[in-house]
Amino acid sequence: MSASRTPALVEVRGVAQRYGRGDKRFTAVENINLSIREGEFVALLGPSGCGKSTLLRIITGLNAPSEGTVLYRGAPLRGVNPKATIVFQTFALFPWLTVEENVAVALQARGVAIEPAHARAVELIDLVGLDGFEQAYPRELSGGMRQKVGIARALAVDPELLCLDEPFSALDVLSAETLRGEVLELWTGGQLQIRAVLMVSHNIEEAVFMADRIVVMDKGPGRIMAEVAVNLPHPRDRKSDAFAALVNRVYALLMGQTQPEEIEFGTEPGQAGVTRALPLAPVTALAGLLEHANATPYERDEIAQLREDLGLDLDHLLPLIEAAELLGFARVESGALILTPLGEAFAEASILARKEIFATRLRRLPFFRWMLRMLRAAGDQALRWEVLLTALERDFPPEEAERQLDIASEWGRYAELFAYDDTEGVFFLESQAAAAPAGAEER
Ligand code: ADP
Ligand code: MG
């Protein structure tokens, strides 16, 4: 569909969303400018937490943005947009209602009488390919079928703007692929009022397969980083060179390019400046990535391949790559992951040597310098979990602070920079841990 000259259905202008108050206030998305034209299928891609769902809520009017405006057909949006609807990852169906009733209630809620509501429900159920399941209950359906009921229910309101928030990610591979095809058919079939689709995805191939345009977001704070037009006719051939080239281009954008260290490292928690969040990368998964990349040299544009080999989705792969970069084990160049000599050394090292390499790298990170300094300064060189958590909550929203401390704890314990007593909930310096029992007896 050529959408370049059609009018804008949605225009997002200078939008920011801040959550929380006072000290805890933080910016989820900032400086968002985006238009969605009639006839367009737009995909939103970006790391977990970059504000994709927030943006959908703002565009559909479920959230009023802290700054900026959303125009719908040229008029500022106030309150929930009745012409828009969101399909979520897992749709909450009423378990005590049949498929038909689950769809019909959406219509009845909008004032449609029972009979026409049921008649329309039956049409919609047919449209999403659930013909014959009208009288089934949700528990009798597979995940893919339940999601179809969710879509039918969303379509019941005759939306002009259909928003999909990671609609396929709770499904198994096969059902997801089938449903993608069906959603595309619904969209291109022209039987519906839908004027535009905005789909959040964490799957680059899915976005290139379905969308006319891919909007790439980044986090810290959430913002739009780039847009990529997908000018391939449907049905798209995943094996074509043009398809692969686009997938690789989006990968390259998402992985970014390695930045100079001073930007990369950020400042210590509690200091002025940007405290860089640690990527949520478990050590074993990171080691797995490095081992695999070391054993299988990826020459160029092959992060897509790496993702496939490791069987990871983007939400899991991105933090691993980010951690590998942050620790100086790898760098990313135009879509390829290149191990540094240190990364190679780590991949080939013994368990003990790995711990040492890891410790050396962690000591350079402001986050760990801060943690170690806090520990050294504490009376018995020990600190309770909550103390560190509270300190971190000045830099991160509460849930993120918790995740940060979890990952810092995992990394630090692996590197034996400090130890943690699970029962007491106390961090203490590793030297202290090793010296105390034995040393006490000798002297
Ligand atoms: P995504 O969908 O890209 O994963 P979200 O839009 O869900 O990202 O969230 C963006 C950021 O805003 C995250 O850090 C998240 O924790 C935070 N956030 C989302 N909703 C709220 C809320 N209601 N209150 C406070 N923080 C929120
Ligand atoms: Mg989300």
Description:
The chain is an alpha/beta fold. It has 3 domains: 41-65 and 79-254, Rossmann fold (3-Layer(aba) Sandwich), CATH 3.40.50; 262-354, Arc Repressor Mutant, subunit A (Orthogonal Bundle); 364-442, Orthogonal Bundle (Arc Repressor Mutant, subunit A), CATH 1.10.10. Helix content is 44%, strand content 19%. It has a 6-stranded mixed β-sheet, with helices on both faces. The protein has a 4-stranded antiparallel β-sheet with strand order 2-1-4-5, with helices on one face. The longest helix has 17 residues, at 173-189. The chain is globular and about 75 Å long. The chain starts with 7 loop residues before the first strand and ends with a helix. The model is unreliable at 258-263 and 433-443 (pLDDT under 50). The protein binds adenosine-5'-diphosphate and magnesium ion. Magnesium ion (MG) is lined by residues 52-53, 165.
Which helices and strands appear, and what pairs or packs with what?
Layout: E1 8-19, E2 26-37, E3 41-45, H1 52-59, E4 67-72, E5 75-76, E6 84-87, H2 99-108, H3 114-127, H4 143-155, E7 161-165, H5 173-189, E8 196-201, H6 204-210, E9 213-218, E10 223-229, H7 241-255, H8 261-265, H9 283-295, H10 303-310, H11 314-326, E11 330-333, E12 336-339, H12 341-348, H13 351-362, H14 366-377, E13 382-384, H15 385-392, H16 398-414, E14 418-421, E15 426-429, H17 430-442
Parallel strand pairs: 3-8, 3-9, 6-7, 7-8
Antiparallel strand pairs: 1-2, 1-4, 4-5, 9-10, 11-12, 13-15, 14-15
Helix pairs in contact: 2-3, 2-4, 3-4, 6-7, 9-11, 9-12, 12-13, 15-16
Bound molecules: adenosine-5'-diphosphate and magnesium ion.
The site of adenosine-5'-diphosphate has 15 residues, from helix 1 and helix 16.
